[in-house]
Design a protein that fits this description.
By secondary structure, the chain is mostly helical. It contains eleven helices and no strands. Keywords: Membrane, Transmembrane, Transmembrane helix, Transport.
Length: about 250
């Protein structure tokens, strides 16, 4: 905890520096998200949508925004060591600080895009019963899982020469496996149970449900317990992998 407090100012400082030096890139990503939202709602309104159609689109767009935060944070985290210098960051500076910089930057984009989505939903009279507690709960869980996953992916850069290509493949599979291009009611119950083993499906679907359906996502207690077990194991494995790789590099 003391280490976290010590490096917190450093993390904030580097977040500001990252935004300042890559502002154009982040603005383009933000405009891309806003365009996706606007065009999706505009095209939907051309076909006299029902209330169900409107709610389904809001469900999918909210999931897309959360996935964008996840994908952006993980993709750029995977290239941190090649851009910043592996030895310096793994032995002198906590790598999780640099990972958090990417997570926070894409979280800011997510928040601005999500506010825009809510404004569009309200102006188009899209029915929703959002749960503020649920939204906050799933955002916190997403943040917590991005840290170890981002660390693992950045460390894998040490072993993989094709990390960029691998990341694109991983994120593509991840996008297909979460409820963005489809909704859970379109799949068999068995398929949903299998997908629920994926912690990112749990997060995206839970966030979507909290935005559109209120507190429905809290009813399935076993899925929450499963996620927390996966999260704990992920942190344990990440700590072991990080320590082992750090010792390996120091020997060199």
């Amino acid at each position: 905890m003391n280490e976290l407090i010590t490096y917190f100012p450093y993390m904030i400082k580097n977040t500001i520096i990252e935004l300042r030096y890559n502002l154009k890139q982040y603005v383009w990503w933000l405009l891309f998200n806003l365009s996706i939202i606007f065009l999706s709602v505009f095209l939907m309104n051309l076909f006299s949508p029902t209330e169900t159609d409107k709610s389904r689109l809001l469900f999918q767009l909210s999931g897309y925004l959360l996935f964008f935060w996840v994908a952006g944070a993980l993709y750029f985290s995977s290239s941190i060591l090649s851009r910043r210098g592996f030895i310096l960051n793994i032995t002198s500076l906590p790598l999780y600080v640099l990972i958090n910089v990417q997570i926070i930057n894409f979280l800011l984009q997510f928040m601005m895009s999500f506010v825009f989505l809510l404004v569009i939903a309200l102006t188009n009279h899209i029915h929703m019963t959002p749960s503020t507690l649920g939204v906050f709960y799933f955002l916190v869980l997403t943040y917590l899982i991005l840290i170890p996953v981002g660390l693992i992916l950045s460390l894998l850069k040490y072993y993989s020469r094709n990390m960029k290509r691998n990341m694109i493949l991983i994120l593509t599979v991840l996008m297909i496996s979460v409820s963005i291009l489809w909704v859970p009611t379109q799949l068999p119950a068995l398929a949903i149970k299998v997908l629920s083993l994926n912690p990112f499906y749990f997060l995206v679907n839970g966030f979507q449900s909290s935005v559109v359906l209120g507190q429905v996502a809290f009813y399935n207690i076993p899925l929450h317990l499963l996620f927390f077990c996966e999260l704990v194991l992920l942190y344990i494995w990440t700590f072991y992998f990080y320590k082992k790789l750090k010792d390996e590099i120091n020997k060199k």
